[in-house]
Sequence to fold (467 residues):
Amino acid sequence: MVDIKNSELAGDLAINTGPLLPAEMINSSCFCSSLDKDALRQALSDDFNSPALYDLVESRCPFLFSSRPIFVSDSQSERIASVIEAIESVIALPAYRAKVLAEAPEIAQYDAGGARGVFYGYDFHLRGETLALIEINTNAGGAMLNAAVAKAHRSCCLSAPALAAAIASGAALEDSIFKMFEAEWASSMHQRPLRTVAIVDDAPEQQYLYPEFILFQRLFGKFGVRAVIASPSELTFSAGVLRYDNLAIDLVYNRLTDFMLASPACQSLRSAYLERAVVLTPHPQAHALYANKRNLALLSDDRQLEELGVSSEVRKVLLENIPHTELVDIANADRLWASRRKLFFKPLAGYGGKAAYRGEKVTKRVWEDILAGDYIAQALVPAGERVNGNQENPEVLKFDLRCYVYDGRVQWTAARVYQGQTTNFRTPGGGFAPVYNLDDARASVEIDALTSQSGAQADCCSGTCSM
Fold:
């Protein structure tokens, strides 16, 4: 067993986050590789068993899928659900919505017409009794990829029934994803069935997660909905109809990072949205209410929450699980600079970890850039850690948890395993990983097996899998 708590590999954990829970201890002990490549190839194959998509993933993004799962305790998952529920209750408050939207661009104040927004991504760091909501996103990618990889892991630390359920959950997630898009269409007061969808991003074929767009296209086709993959500049709007070539578009699945549709390329989409000629999901108002990082400062400020009418019970949940966050300005610049080693700095308009800085790495020059831009300072909470490699040459990677949420309910929880300042898909051994919940009793059985077989030339836990 690798002692992450005391290991030099665990430099991040100079901040004391307390002892690991039993399920987490497996993350620091089990070297088993549970990803079945043949099963993954099958999961990514089309109806004709073509390996083209698998080959595309292997060539373009070889570190998209982690070979090892992440284990969390049941109590941690329950706590995550309570945090999401608390945040959703605040965002539903008229006072919160009025305050946030008053500071948002005009298009974000436009009523989206019933669409709730698909794939809210709640990102967490967790370790032992420490849980931290790091940020919320409104066009979180990876759900379809996680549905595929769920079918391909054969974890040794799960009972046979639990493993069978985990594999089956991938197909169930795909079905729930389509039903979610149907719900977005129906909630926008449309009576007829959904017929056409455009999956829209800038230069989609050049996007790192382009393989996922193909999976979405297949999913829609499976349910009789025609889907196209397009850049916003390929859309036209006239006579009240948004079109791709000559195809009238019912719904746009929005993967753009131009959250307010401000660029010239987005003008047709913007016009169609404002005239309610298309259902756009997620939409600008969703981003303003959930994903603007300014909101993290509000959600971690007891005084402001109380002024909004948030109950003491909900405030307690938020303050215990959202790291203190504040806007960076001249008034607090000296204090934040002095305490920068305990902080993480993120741009308000940033995404995907771009232009985000861990405080200990901030130089004077970078600090001037932060002061000149619009940034938040967030209390630093280290990511979880997952052992990689083997017992003779172990290494420790980081991970966060991403909860995909729709209409206030968690659809799926995945992990992103990585090395570096922020999540990425460039780390050998890293990528999306399934998350398995274990109760303490089951986890303790695995820990005992890991301990007894430490150093032995045998399976490292109570089950059997590939090392």
